[in-house]
Design brief:
The protein is about 35% helix and about 15% strand. With about 375 residues, the protein is an alpha/beta fold. The chain has two domains: about 160 residues, Rossmann fold (3-Layer(aba) Sandwich), CATH 3.40.50.720; about 180 residues, NAD(P)-binding Rossmann-like Domain (Rossmann fold).
Length: about 375
Amino acid sequence: MTAQARAGLSGCDGARGSAEGKRDVNLFFTRRDDDLRAAMWHAGVADRVRSLRWTARFSPSASDLSEVDLADQLVGIDALVTTWGTPKLTERALSKADSLRIVAHAAGSVAFVVTEAVWNRGIVVTTANELMAQRVAEYNVMMTLFGLRRVPEYAGCGDTKTWDRSANRRRVRGIRGSTIGIWGYGDVARHLLGLLRPFEPAALLVCDDYLSAQEAEHAAIRKVTLGELFGQSDVVHLLQGLTPETYGAIGTDELRVLRDGAVLVNSGRAHLVDTEALLRELQTGRFYLILDVLPEEPLPGSHPLRRLENVFITPHNAGAGIEHLLVPYVLADVERYFDGEPLEHRIDRERARHMTQLVPEASGT
């Protein structure tokens, strides 16, 4: 931060000046009054806001705000910090936003909250999507190793009655020499590719309509079709955004060509895959499935996915453990904005259109 920023943030677009020459920046944080808000807006955040002489206001409710409730709160607000549970920023929600200039989304995809009304008003948008992507990419590396090494097959072999390791040893593999495939080429995929390269996989395959041949060559990855991705990979990661076009796009045709012994990892969205087709193919026992996103969340105990030995489930926590980092991450861009500096995590209208738009599963966050 510059000396001017430390003294007190100033406005953009010709409104720069001393702290005395400009009123405080007024922030509003939309998260309802709960444990998650306490974790996100912690003492470190509060101290930073005070040091900038900004004013912060919060949702007064223990439940999610409605569009009408939010509209009433946005009078005189310069910067809006959003996260899970924020209503969509429609014309109605923004109807009283007389001074709003930036939306800072302390979560991933901005498509959950941002609408055309935001872009049409010229409001700047920034997000913590890249921070979350880094954490999810770490999860995917862990599960790549977990699946290739067949950990569930020997995790309970600590007693003498089940010490025979010979069959499992023949099935264990590593990333080196394996072909890793990724559906999607967003922030998570890019971080995952960077983490995988030192392991020296045999090939890195990516299927994404927006990946150009030139970019693929520069990144040392091979662009493939969806069928090629599933047919040639030892591990397939589903990291595509969920949109009307990708909903249920993975079905019988793709799942049937998975190699015997392959690992399918879905930390993107459950509904990228046709659940009925997935259950049919899983029952063959040919491949191993690792799920962090589920058709219903939490998944009922009676659900067929819970009864299959070749399925490993985690509770939608691939991006967990960074709640305390999210607000500081986006507030840094808010500081840059009001100091007239370039934003590091700005999202434009076109980029937002390709981010996950749908969340049919009820996840609670």
